[in-house]
Fold this protein.
Amino acid sequence: MVDPLDPGTMALPLGFKRGRGRPRKADALSAAERARRYRARRKLQGLGTVPAVAYEQAVRERDLARTQVAELRAALEQLQRVLGH
């Protein structure tokens, strides 16, 4: 505060100087809350493990498709030999 009777006093700057970086939000989540929400989203997306029954069925279908491809390739080679290509 400036003393009007004392010529040696000055008005001090009382302005607020912001700190460095981005200001904090009032409703910011803690690290634990962010992690909890992340795990909940992952769980909803269904990125967990595959049931053993579904995996075994997929493997059987893959093996069946591979045998069919091999049979078709053999038939194609036989036809190419017959046709002379």
